[in-house]
Every structure is written in C-alpha cells, then in structure tokens.
Amino acid sequence: MANTLQDRVAIVTGGSRGIGAGIAYELAVRGANILITYNNASTQADEVLAKVKALGREAIGVQAGGSDRTAPKRIVDAAVAKWGHIDIIINNAGAGDDILLKDLTHESWDKVFDCNLRFPTFLVKEAIPYFGTAPRIVNISSVIARMGGAYATPYCATKAALEGVTKVWAQELGQQYGATVNCVNPGPVATDMWLRDTDPDVLKEWEPKMKETPAAPRIATPDDIAQIVAFLAEERSRWSTGSTVNANGGLCFV
C-alpha cells in the first residue's frame, strides 16, 4: 500500500481493540502517525502501539473514558504537544448495553449518550483550532441506526444522532477548514465486544440476518471496516462529505 497518509496525524478513539485497533493499524500502514485512546485495556493498547511503531510510525496512547468530560481536551492537548496539529479524527469509541425498554435506567441511558455522542462532539470541537490541511473526520455509526432492533434504545438513538451531526459538521467545517466529515455504518463485527459481551438473545436475533448479507454470508472482520475508513481519511475521498457510507456488506443499504 502506498503511503497515502504519510506523516498525517490521526486520532482513533477506542483504538486499543476491535474495530478501532484495526483502523489504527491500517492508517499506520498508509503512513499516518497515531494517537489511540483507551479506557482500561492498557495491555491491549500497548500491543496496538507496538504494532504501529513497528511500521516506523509514531504512536501514543491516552487513557480517556467516554464519560470523562476532561477527555476531549486532554486528547487534543496530547496530540498537539506531540505533533503540533491534527489531520484525522476517527470517532470509534462506543458503549452499548443490551437492555429492553422496560428495563432502561437513567444511568444506562447517560452512559451510552456520553460515550457515543457527547464525547465525539466535544473532541471535534476541541480539535478545530489545530486542524491541519484538509482534515478528515470519520464517525462510526451502525446499521442499528437505520434498521432498529430490540435491546438497543439508547444505542440506536445515539448512532442515528451521530449520522445527523455528521451532516451538520460537513456544512460547518467544509469550506472554512477544507474538512470532510463522513460516517460508516458497520453491522456485526467479529470483535470481543460482539462475541463475548453481546446478550445471547441478541446474537440469536442477528444470526439469520448475517447469513443473508449480500456481500458474503458471514460476520464482518475489523479489517473490512478499516479499509473503508482509511479510504475516507485519504485525499482520494475529497469529494465525499456529509455521507453515511455502507460498511456492512449490504446488510443495510444506504
């Protein structure tokens, strides 16, 4: 792969595992220097950072939980202290409890909204003064934003909202900063979050849907998503903005 992101500076939230780790590695393969955020998985974060550095890229990690209101500024400050500017933001960190509406609590609602919507919004806000040339922002949504599904009221609401703010940011940040802002919408991906943490009833609900996925009758891999995100982070994607890009094998057409 040519170094299409040579010396670009990328922030990947939730970059210590799963989709985020795959995205961080693929951006580094293409030449980017990487800041990943992680919650408590410091060992996994160290492994991702080591892989990025093995490619000859610079990499740092910042511990930052989605409910921590100081996190966006701390992340931006760390990136600017290291590199002086920010070129790419991948808003990947996410939270989601499998919970039916009848069991929903204010605490579970706030946790998901803080991580999935407030955190990425204020991260981008803090980064604006430090944008490099032609910044790229990619938000990670979900097919659940359009397909719905049981057990997912706050999760679905936040992902639909993230698609909405993508359009707003594309308008606000486009000509003024030369930015593009896009969303991708994965379906189920074979990560530890999906395979280990998902309620068995939810897994049972999704099994027949995955077998009907047009691109292939299987669950996605992190690399399936990372390839699409990396393209949206490149100069070659300059004429796409404000879009939600199909990243689910056709499970949900956009």
Span from first to last CA?
28 Å
The CATH homologous superfamily corresponds to: NAD(P)-binding Rossmann-like Domain
Placed side by side, the strands forming the largest sheet appear as 3-2-1-4-5-6-7
Gross CATH architecture = 3-Layer(aba) Sandwich
Using the alpha-carbon principal axes, give the shape: globular
Give the total of beta strands.
7
> How many distinct domains?
1
Main structural class: alpha/beta
Secondary-structure element pattern, one letter each: EHEHEHEHEHHEHHHE
Q: Mind telling me the C-alpha Rg?
A: 17 Å
Helix content: 40-55%
- The CATH topology corresponds to Rossmann fold
SS strand fraction = 15-25%
Mean model confidence by pLDDT: 93
| Alpha plus pi helix count | 9
Which residues sit in consecutive blocks of at least 5 with pLDDT less than 50? none
**How is the biggest beta sheet arranged?**
7 strands, parallel
CATH class: Alpha Beta
